[in-house]
Every structure is written in C-alpha cells, then in structure tokens.
Amino acid sequence: MPAGKNILGFVEAVLKDLLRKWEGHFPLENVHIRFNSKMRSRAGLCKPHQRIVELNPHLLQDPKILEEVLIHELCHLAVGLRWPYAQAHGKKWQALMLRCGFEPKRCHNLPVTKRRMHRRWEFQCHCQTHRVSTVVRNRILRGARYKCKMCRSLLVTD
User: Mean per-residue pLDDT for 1-19?
Assistant: First the structure.
C-alpha cells in the first residue's frame, strides 16, 4: 500500500507508463491529478477540458485499483480531448482501455463509504413530535409555516 510521498511517486510512475504506452497519440500534457476526499461512491472523475482527474482517496489502499481507476479516468481525458462529442463509455473509450490492458468496465465494485446521517430537528404540533431536516428547520426559523397533516396545527419548536 503506498503511503505519503509514495502515493505521488506511484501516480507519477503510472502516468509515465501510460504516456509511454500511448506514445504521444493523445494530448495528456499539463494533466492535474488530485484526490477528492468528498467522493463517497464514485471511484474517479474526469474533467477533460480542465485537464483534471480526481480520484477517491479511499482507493489508496490498493495500488492495482488506483492504477485501474487512474487509467479509466485518463482514457476519459484522452477521448474527451480528442473527440469532444464521443460517448463517455463508448467504442473509442473502450478501445483505449483495452489498449492500456484493462477491461473497459463502467462501474467499480469497491466498498462504498456510507453517507453520513443527516441531522433531524424536533418540532411539535398538537398531536405529535415531527422530525424535520435542517432545510425545513431553517425555513421555519425564517418564517415559513409548516402544518401537521393530521391535526393541521403549525409546527413549533420548544
């Protein structure tokens, strides 16, 4: 498992291998590879016209998975720059994935980080306690009126 500076070294080594493998056929100069800690369920993201590849930092646990996802996203980058209107996982992308030695699959099978629990706020009416989202709470605090569907009285906080 790469750690610390080894992660950057690993990514750079993979990138050099890919550039060698693609022999300059695709414009990959000035590519920015970064890790996005906000990613939960997607493995990676490519923004071709910004030349940005974002990777899920949870992938760092296995260099082989990181390499496959990096290649997957760099193939999106190469196809997106060369053929801007090509389908995201179309024939051109699939052919490039195969040329790089990977199965052109669309979805990963990584364990997904569970999304955080959303806070609920308690408001009362005449008949019960309601648990509302932060958005609804903020609306009520700003003056919006929410009524209970059963007793039709306004929701209020203690």
Answer: 61
